[in-house]
Amino acid sequence: KEYRRQRQMCIRDRKTKAFETKDALDLYKKIIYTEGKAGRRMDKKQIEEMIDLAIRQLDYSYAPYSHFHVGAALLAKNGNVYGGCNIENAGYTPSNCAERTAFFKAVSEGVLEFDAICVVGGMNKELKEYAAPCGVCRQVMMEFCDPEEFQIILATGKEQYEIFTLKELLPLGFGPNNLKLDR
Length: 183
Ligand code: THU
Description:
Elements: H1 2-16, H2 22-35, H3 44-57, E1 68-76, E2 81-85, H4 98-107, E3 114-123, H5 135-144, E4 151-157, E5 160-165, H6 166-169
Parallel strand pairs: 3-4
Antiparallel strand pairs: 1-2, 1-3, 4-5
């Protein structure tokens, strides 16, 4: 209960940046460092499930040229989770990133609203660093997601992850709103 109270205080203080107690400040720092500036809008279990699914997608990653394998798990607002992997090509340019594979699977089935994506990846499937989405994938996210709300979970394992909003990874992004298009 005390933790909940402190956490509430933290969420409020995130806006005012005033901390009533040292505990609240420490908790705020912990949230910022472990969950990213975006804060956490999903519970830990859900985040872990997405990390798990993204890691399992590495089995399907087709990357015989770069050997850089990427897996993604995309959470739609309707609760569906779409897996994705990178799919390379001898012609190089036809290659597709894991994130776009997941998005295109969903959109091709009529699902257009999303809450979050988890991305993992590394050379020879070794997850040593975060695999941040490339610029093209960020732009695809911009097409279907609210940049202030959409959560991008970068992970190297279930215990090591950071969460960013799309806006943090694509500031001043250009999207459907700029063309006054109502999605
Ligand atoms: N790749 C992804 O699938 N997602 C990313 O976020 C970064 C890069 C893929 C594309 C290519 O198959 C390989 O990683 C190396 O660039």
